[in-house]
Amino acid sequence: MKTGNFTNIKIIFLFFFFSLQCFDAQVTIAPVGSPATLPNINLNDIDNICTISNNYRGLTKISSVDPSNNYQATFNNNTWNSGAWFRGYFSGFEDTLDKRTKFYNENWSSHPLARSTSKVVRGLIHYNNFRGENGNANYNLNIDQIVDGLKYLQTQIQPSGGVIWWFERPGLNTFDQDDTPGANNIHIYETGHTLATLCDGYMYLKKINKLDRVPNLIQDINKIAGFIEQIPVPTTDILDPSTQYNTADYMAFGLWGLSKAYKVTKNCNYLNKVTEICNWFIAYQSLDNTNNEECKGTWKFSSQTENNVQIYSNTKIVYHLVCVRGLIEAFDIIPASSSIRENLSNTIKLGVNHIIKKRVRESDQTLSWLQFDTNCQTLANIDYAYYYDNDQVEPIALLAYYATLHNDLFNNSEKEYLKNFLIKMSLYSGSRILPSTNNQGDYGALIQMHSWAYYVDYYNAITHGYKIFAEDGNPYYDSNKVMNKMVSGDFDNDGKQDDIAAFYDYGGDPINGMTTELHVLKGTGSNFNFSSSSIYWQAPNYNSAQIVGNTVSGDFDNDGKQDDIALFYDLGTDPVNGAKTAIHVFKGNVNSFEYSGTNGFWQSQGYDSGKITDRIVSGDFDNDGKVDDIAAFYDYGTGGTRIHVFRGTGSGFEYLNGADGFWQQTSYDANKITGKIVSGDFDNDGNFDDIAAFYDDGNTANGIKTSIHVFKGTGTGFDYSDPNGFWNTTGYDSNKITGRVVSGDFDNDGKYDDIIAFYDYGSNETRAHIFRSTGTGFEYLPYASDGFWQNINYKADNITGRLISGDFDNDGNFDDIAGFKNNTNQNSSINVWLSSNHDFQYTGIDNWFGCGSNSNNIFIAAKSPNNYNSIEYSVSAKNQNEIVVYPNPADDIINIKYQLKEKGSVLINISTFEGRRINIQPYIKEEKGIYNKVYNIKRYHLTKGTYLVEIYINNILHTKKIIIK
Fold this sequence. Notes:
This is Putative secreted protein (Por secretion system target). By secondary structure, the protein is α+β, with helices and mostly antiparallel strands. It has 14 helices and 45 strands.
């Protein structure tokens, strides 16, 4: 598995232009016509259709068909699996003579199809979720059916990972089929459906804390996804009929399932393949503006004759929407930093606009099955009907929902258009789920069941602003979600304090709970690895907002490893007994955490954790040689402050001296040190038992005053230095460092007694100040005002509450600093400062999340003490591969010719000056030789301008300038 390693090879094309934009204007969703009337959502109707669905699962098997009696079927006493719906191509309920004849004469299978079960199961999931989000007591009403369906789908997975399409029965007169494939083969249609449903099932069961109901679910998801990931993606517009991807819609089934699998697993191989497939769809979508734009936004593949007219099968409304659905699901997982994200959104919008503009008949909301021939000429006789029984509502429901989670690429008007379009496309399904309102009874209601479920759940989510699944809408790692909830430690037990652990808040709702995951980024000495295995712990009902203040790490289970995490958790307030607080401990187990449970290692009714916010540290305060204790500054109000100490026992905490604590004072304002305290050995006695705090002394005649107060541990209490502290000065504003103070051994003298504070000078200027301990005071070193590091284009607030120290370069010294830097609507950077001879080597790791990589990902490679934006990338002339870009200037076509002097890796992107990128060649490995790649400029929406092309080959940067005329 690729783990988002920062040394992955990537090619970046930066296109600089003078006055002309290099892309067409961003595509927008077209208006949908008159506002739609909201359908009525009736819970009784939903309960009724769910009950009806039970009549179509575990059906009796066919024993014979009598051709002499209008091909009527008879049935035996054997039944199909209770988790299987329908009988394949012979329902036994809704059929005609024509269908019965074809079933018999064409040897169709009566084995339940995975696609049919998938649709019903996903419908039940969304009905259940809708109930739960609305506080309905029956939100688990269909859980047994969902579980049975998921288990049946697991039985349809073959050893290769594919899922069988039961198309034929073993013999013309053989109806009691066994599971021997025979003429039936693995098919991407069934495989994609099954994978998507297993993933939805996983996310839903995780949400309601019932994953134990379906064993091996994640293993089977990976098995199918691994199969799809290995299917080669076409590199041209010629589709090989002998492959799984012989039509665009078949490719979209793989894209759909694989995108959901990435949501569940965070496997980078899946995301890379998703990106590759998306690139194909972007490249080969029709942009034809002729003939009134009949073809625009479609994929013109699979030519065939129908009703004596040559048409493209992939432009049939059902297959077109299958393509759109795959792209929409992929869009939700593409990282915000990805070069294809904006172009993918444009591709989706063009595909949806084709439906809005060309396929919907406004008078009755019917859809055209086909619209044009292979010459993009409008058909003479267009067939309009209610084609809403084959997941046609789902793509629009998904897009309307995801648009609310991706505000950077969907404006408010587009969101309203999509919501209105969803309503209109759902009206038919809503009117058909009642058997009395259609001419097919229960069966007619059931085939609309899943379409109505998508409307009900997704529209409700849009209206009330909740997420269907916690995994939805996370295109970047938002460092705001881990503020004050990250620590360093040795969580992989390799003996190095080089890992980062962070509690990530995925949000949720008051009914189903808030979802929290505990992520671990494993340090390697030169980077951090993040993948699906980085999720060390997760809970669907753990609210990280109730974690009070900062978290701390230590050896709280006394196993000799600094791999545990402790935090104060707010259990709420009782009107009579007051606040209740627990100390939760997460014990490290190499690749996971063992949660201590709600009661934690310690709890108390009447202890208000809100009184210790951001004033918590860990250390060895009882001097037993173990970093297993916690100290907290408790604010009693009106200047009263006490230091409470919780001594670790390995299985709990002892509240030493109770409320009296290890130290107390009646004229010490705890709020003056909030977010500015650290622990260490500041008196140099060899014990990690001291606390240092920056105290805001307020304004004086000479300006604002700050002191560093040191509380020296004695094993049974704290010796408070004095109000002047180990250091004090006027003109230094401690409020400029709040949430950005760490301790360590930054002067490399072997003592954990120094402090680094990141000072905000305003106007985006930041400096890292060092305070070196002497054992009796702090030296604010002569160069300290300039700092160990300074940057005139770095906003300090972007790392507030997200800064930790450790040994991230694995040199054995606890002298490095790492922080999550918040980037608005973009992936957070991991910033690393490596201590080096009174200086810091600094780099910002940008694309660590979402399997990305960048040229500055190896954080020991770059040094920039003054301005991180000044980091430059150079190209060595030694063994340089030859690059030629021609013609120059170019018109419609550009050629990129290069020579590989050894086997190498190449990936080609194009991006605007602002950094918006499109991918023109996916990441590929190539043998030694000369290559000449031809690219159609029009395909990539490039317009006039001057561009700088930067290419990485084997991680070496090459730069070429080109003009597009």
